Structure formats: structure tokens, C-alpha cells
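Self-study notes.
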Amino acid sequence: MRIDLHTHSTASDGTDSPAELMAAAVASGLDVIAITDHDNTGGWAPALAARPAELAVIRGAEFSTLIPGGGRLVSVHLLGYLFDPAAPAIVAEQARLRDERLHRGMGIVDRMVAAGVPISRQQVMEIAGDAPVGRPHIGRALVASGVVASVDEAFASYLAGRSQFYVPKADTDLISAVDMIAAAGGVSVIAHPRGRGEFRALDFDTVAMLVDHGLGGLEVDHPDHDDAARAELGSFVERLGLIATGSSDYHGTNKVLRLGQETTREEQLGRILAASSGVVAPVGPGGSLW
């Protein structure tokens, strides 16, 4: 069984619609896919409506969080699976984050416009559509305007944290996010815990503390992780009894990543299913609750 537990659609910063994502999953030979858009669940309903009969769908989201580390606040992405989307704390926080993303995105655009970069607020809003505004939407505007050749190039220059145009956003406290997902019956897994600067905060003792708050697992196999990172995270998983996942972090054409590039073992998915409360059941082959 081929299982990919971290993908994005146009409900956040992917380029495939939820329906296109379902079709692409089958074309890629996947048996199970999780739709995990950033800070929202807007892709769930259209994904399930378009789900091919042979594909199982795990509903999730990727929460943007912060935790202190190395004398600064470190960005950590947290995957939540099978949580109740109507849980009041999650509804309120996702609404706040949507507003925060819009404020931050327009701030970046305004700085670029003031510097003569040929993009506009309207252009970025049209690219984002109904999705929360994110830096990839600004990157696509930069590509469309001929400023850069790719979204990857945009992130390496105009959208980088060191850029003159960068504007921070106030993400959720990581411990609070773990608590929220657990309270909503879901299972939390830290996304790409060695993909960026997370090493500054996510040492063994911090991960162990998060387990005490209900953290379920770590995304060990990720395209951003080298062999050393996978070995280190594997040791964390073994010592703490955590779930180990593998995922592509697919974003369509926004990133050079393939669906199913990294996958999760079937027994690890079974642990996620067993650990969830069943408030939101996964949908399996034939439409059954799986």
C-alpha cells in the first residue's frame, strides 16, 4: 500500500485543485492520500466529492506554529489528522491565521510595490482565489510578471526571510496547537522537523515535552531530510514511541516534488487511525469509513 500523508491543494498554496489532487494521487499509484492544506480545511469537501473509488482520503491540515529556540522564535509546521474541524478553538485560530496571512501577504506586496517590483495586491488576490494568501501566491505573481523564473527562485530571493520585503506573521504557539488537535480528537505529527531551522528548537527534550502534551509523531521521511536527519529523527521515534510518517509535501507546480516521493508505512497509518477519536473518520475505498 502506497501512502502519502502530506499534500497541498489550491485551498492553500498548491496548484492542483482538490479534485485534481485526487486524480493525480491515483495516477501516481497512491492508495491513501492526506489533504493537509495550510491552516484551513476548505479542501476537504471538494476532495471527498471528487475522490476516486479506489482512493482512501485522510483529512488533515498543516498548522503554522512557533516555539522558542536558540534565543528566537522558530517556525514549526504541525500536521493534524482526523480532528474535528468544528472544534471552537480550531475554528477561532484558523480564522485568526487567515486574517494574519492576508495582513502579512499584503504587507509584503506593498513593500515590493514601493520598491518598484511590478506586481499588485489585486494580482496576488486573484492568484490566491479563495485560499488564505501565502508567499507562494506572491511568488507566482513574481513569475507571471517576469521578475523571476520560478517560485523556488522567488523564495530564494524576494521572499526569503532575509529579504527587505519580508514581513513576519504571528503563528500559533506550538504547544497550544498540539493541545488543540488532541482536544479535537485528532493526531498531531511535526512536519519536516529537520527541513529548515527547526533544529534550533526541536531537540530530544523538547520533543519529549510535546509528547506529554499529546504529540503523536514525527515526519521522518521528507524530501528535505538527508540521511543524518532521518537517522536522528528515527532515534527520537524509537525512544519516545512515536508514529513515524513519510510524505512528499506535494504542492503541484509550486515545488519540484512528486506525489508519493516519500511514503508512510501501512502500520504507521494504522497507529494514526487507532489514536484518533473517530470524530472525523477517514474515507476509504467504496466510500466506507475505513
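Second protein, same conventions, sequence then structure:
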Amino acid sequence: MLGIGALPSVFLAIGVLAMPESPRWLVMQGRLGDAKKVLDKTSDSLEESILRLADIKEAAGLPENCHDDIVSVTNQNCGEGVWKELLINPTPTVRHILIAGVGVHFFQQASGIDAVVMYSPRIFEKAGIRGEHDKLLATIAVGFSKTIFTLVATFFVDRMGRRVLLLTSCGGLIVSLLGLAVGLVIVDHYDDREVMWAVGLCVTMAISCVAFFSIGMGPIAWVYSSEIFPLRLRAQGCSMGVAVNRFTSGVVLMTFISLYKAITLGGAFFFYAGIAIVSWVFFYTLLPETQGRTLEDMEGLFGTYSKWRYSRL
């Protein structure tokens, strides 16, 4: 049974072999010819490919009139000074990008979604579902909801934009967490046979939490953080976001049982709902829309904290 889990990894490894290198990485290595081939395949038109290559060359410090397939790149710093620019002496633009890139990962996990998913059998048991078969069906419904709504997100992320989906997702998660908390408090104070509607509310809200999370906060946190860091800072900036994501997830999972024993299960989800409210304010205040923007456009989009909200929502 455990060995079956290796199959997706095998397919992923095979698929990675067929993936082209990033054109930005190729330019940084001086392989302009290979970068042009990748851009020709991934761009909508030849004109778009030429413009994107010019932007990447400018960001990499290469002259626009350089058209050789292989060039010598002498201005690479191989990461030297990047940490200083990110953490010690950042410009207002870099500071804004770093806060947005790391913050979106932190709030993705701090809102407690892993507690809902990983501890769903315990949540359903506390909600009054005693049968193992019933708990299994409810848990399967949570996983099914996550899968379906993640697929929904793939169809809307480039149509509605990152910002709209993030705010919608976070707003729905807030309502769902509050509904789950209220249902658990009611079930905890009354016999669950007398308040069957509250049991149904708990199950519905748990599934709703996962659904709303999966249409926005789940996938878009990864998309957003990967497309906002400038080329020279991208590797280190993205790695910081992932590290914060995994650390926060670990903290949530390791503290959840202690948390709900201290303030009850309903109280724990009221706490996560409060964090989700802060998340919504953070997304609304600090995250500009990046739909249709190239990596080279990002430094002009960030840094003002407010002007972008009036120019392009």
C-alpha cells in the first residue's frame, strides 16, 4: 500500500525530463539560442517571443543587440549580495515583494487548513459522527472536494486574476471556519442527536473550508510567489517563501491538539478564523494583481503599497 505512493513520483520524474529549461536561467548561463527556442515554443507569437527575450536580456544585464547563440556572461554574482539585498538593505520595492512573497505562504498555512484536512476524522468524531464508515465517507468527501476545486482554480486563475481568487477564497474560508466553529460549539454543549443540523453544519463547513481554500489560497500562493521576485533574487526569494510555508504548516499540525484541548475544538477554529481575517486584510492591502505581467514588470508594480490599487485592480 505504501509503495503505491511512489508511482506519482515516478511519473513526475519522467515528466520533468521532458520539460525545457527556464529561458531566464538559460540567458543567465549565456545560452541565448536555447532561450529563444524555448520562448518561441511557449509564446503566442514570434513578436511576443522577441519582446520577452529582450526584457530578459535587459534584466540579466546583456545588451539588446546581442544576438549570438552563446555569449559570455561575466556579471553573474552567483548569489553574492542577494541575501544582503533581500534582508539587510532592501529597496522599498524589494521589501514589498519580500513581504508579499513570504506573507502569502505564511497566511496560506496559518489559517489552519492542514488542521482541517489532517485531523478531519477527529473533527467529525467531535461533531457527533461515531461510525467508522461514516467518518471515512466524510473524510473522503473532504479529499474529493480539495481535488475538484483545485482543478476549478486552474481554469479561472488566468481569467479572473490572482488577486480576485485570493480574496474570494480567503473570504469563503473565513465564513466556513466560523461556521465550523459555531457548529462544534453547539454540538459540544448539546446532545448531537438533538442538534443533528449542527452535525450537518460541521460536515458541510469542513468540506467548504477545503473547497474555498483550493480555489485560491492553495494554488495561488505558489503561483504568486514564483512570479513576483526579480530575476536576480528569484531563487533565494522563492526558497524563503517555501521554507516559511513548510515551517508554518509544521507548527499548525504539531500544536493543533494542544490548542483545541486548551480552548476547545470550536475555539481553535475561531482562532484560525481570526487569522484568516488578518490574511484577507493582508491580501487586500499588499498584494497587487500580477495577471498578464511578466517577471520583468514586477519591480515597477511593487513598492508603492497603494498606488497600484487605484490604477489596476
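Instructor comment on the second fold: Residues 234-263 form the longest helix (30 residues).
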